[in-house]
Structure to design on (294 residues):
């Protein structure tokens, strides 16, 4: 099965990368964007989803600075 | 005294660190990432670079290399470990040090010499420094912006575990933190590179103020 993991900076944590992207948008004529956060998308083919949460906790996300969610795609 | 230097794919300050160890008068020991022991090292340096290409997060993959299991045992038994730059990132990912290193604020890779103050001389890597001593050390990093939650920061400050502090903050680091240590004060992580100023041909030997400290305090 295919699993999709989304990792993003924890709420309230400084996201200098997101801020850099946000400040680039008005220069291209895209107004009205107040915040941007940049995260990571990880897609995996797995035999079972049993251990996906453990994978997220141990490797795919760093719980000190990131939060994650995952779903089975198909 | 034997001082090990870990080498991961993508480490690039390992040779400098090994050279610095030689100049300290200690015996340098190469610790390959696949090694399952520390080859009798009395202290270990986890050097800078881009271990595993910084893929996923800096230090995230190196943290699970074979050599990390004996290193974690060594840390728990009070052995002196110094993580420099990417080495600091590896030690936070391994939970041997609290917090994490975020991307720099200011949208740039910072590569220059900075002034830092030695805040704690209680660690095995700063025991020969004077309290409050100021050093000029090079930094070269994209993720040097130290982050920890407010409770952890308060604990670090209260327990005298901030080891180095920037005189001028180059990366947005919380409390101007350039380096911290573990609860046992044997594991130290710093963003500045003492090995890059460890030989007169490099223009300065100020890094030796830190590196040589371990000779005095370690179990031999």
């Amino acid at each position: 099965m295919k699993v999709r993991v989304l990792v993003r900076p924890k709420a309230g944590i400084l996201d200098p990368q997101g801020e850099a992207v946000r400040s680039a948008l008005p220069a291209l004529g895209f107004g009205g964007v107040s915040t941007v956060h940049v995260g990571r998308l990880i897609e995996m083919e797995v035999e079972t989803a049993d251990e996906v949460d453990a994978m997220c906790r141990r490797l795919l996300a760093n719980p000190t600075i990131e939060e994650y969610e995952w779903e089975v795609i198909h | 005294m034997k001082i090990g230097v870990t080498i991961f794919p993508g480490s690039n300050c390992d040779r400098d660190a090994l050279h610095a160890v030689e100049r300290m008068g200690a015996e340098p020991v190469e610790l390959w990432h696949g090694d399952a022991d520390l080859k009798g090292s009395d202290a270990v340096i986890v050097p800078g670079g881009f271990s595993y290409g910084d893929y996923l997060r800096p230090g995230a993959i190196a943290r699970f290399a074979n050599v990390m299991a004996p290193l974690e045992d060594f840390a728990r038994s009070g052995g002196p470990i110094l993580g420099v730059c990417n080495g600091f990132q590896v030690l936070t990912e391994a939970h041997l040090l609290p917090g994490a290193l975020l991307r720099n604020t200011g949208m740039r890779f910072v590569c220059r010499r900075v002034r830092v103050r030695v805040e704690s001389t209680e660690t095995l890597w700063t025991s020969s420094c004077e309290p409050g001593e100021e050093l000029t050390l090079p930094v070269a990093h994209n993720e040097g912006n130290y982050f920890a939650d407010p409770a952890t920061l308060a604990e670090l400050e209260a327990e005298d575990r901030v080891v180095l502090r920037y005189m001028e903050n180059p990366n947005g680091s919380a409390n101007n933190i350039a380096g911290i240590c573990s609860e046992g004060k044997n594991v130290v992580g710093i963003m500045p590179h003492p090995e890059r100023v460890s030989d007169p041909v490099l223009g300065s030997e100020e890094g030796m103020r830190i590196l040589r400290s371990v000779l005095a305090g370690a179990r031999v």
About this structure: The domain at 2-72 of chain A is CATH 3.30.1280.10 (Mth169; Chain: A ,). Chain A touches chain B at residues 13-14, 16-17, 19-20, 40, 59-60, 62, 64-65 (CB under 8 Å). Chain A has a mean pLDDT of 95.
